[in-house]
TrEMBL record:
<dbReference type="Pfam" id="PF00702">
    <property type="entry name" value="Hydrolase"/>
</dbReference>
<dbReference type="InterPro" id="IPR023198">
    <property type="entry name" value="PGP-like_dom2"/>
</dbReference>
<dbReference type="InterPro" id="IPR023214">
    <property type="entry name" value="HAD_sf"/>
</dbReference>
<dbReference type="InterPro" id="IPR036412">
    <property type="entry name" value="HAD-like_sf"/>
</dbReference>
<dbReference type="GO" id="GO:0016787">
    <property type="term" value="F:hydrolase activity"/>
</dbReference>
<keyword id="KW-0378">Hydrolase</keyword>
<dbReference type="InterPro" id="IPR006439">
    <property type="entry name" value="HAD-SF_hydro_IA"/>
</dbReference>
<protein>
    <submittedName>
        <fullName>HAD hydrolase, family IA, variant 3</fullName>
    </submittedName>
</protein>
Amino acid sequence: MKPVIKAVALDKDGVVFDTERLIYRAFRELIVRERLPIRPELFEELVGKPPQVYLQVLNEALGQAMSLDDFIAHWFALRDEIFANEGAPFMPGADALIASLHARGVPLALVTGDFRPFSERDFARSSRPELFACFAHVITYEDVTQPKPDPEPYRRAAEALGVDPANLLVVEDSPPGVEAATTAGCLTLILPGYGMISPDLAARAWRTIRHHDEVLRLFDEYGSR
């Protein structure tokens, strides 16, 4: 049976904003500056994971070199400095995609493992802060009992948008996000980013795309009329 798209949900970091590149830069600069015993590649393994998971992994990796609280404080301070200087850059084509879908009347949700204040601040610091209002619903870490990779965030998004998960098109870039969306039963698109997605997990998604323009083309073909 041909899929039918009735609504769209987007992840934030790595799909809407190119924030993961800047967050990684802050991560790398900190471990080099402080000569910490952490592999830079660890960042890729943590992309998309809920806070309680990546905090535990970081704490174990730090050992006695630095307290977790100090590491997070320094990391976030560097991140905020970079964001303040450079803003929150959109992924290529993401702003146009959001505007186009909204103009067509497509119900939109933002589904992120980030906290709501950070999500609002990313849009406020972006070149098009007005696009935040295009999302009918915003599902953040605070809004769920079980964050990604649990399917709850996308099930909540589908319910809020008034569609069946099978009719919700999701764009994700990280392994936890792809697992959450596919387990929820959504039409899942993978936009490859920092997260390392296994072939088995990729096979569960509907398609892998390379650019946001492909989302509009798929909606033109499979969107409900």
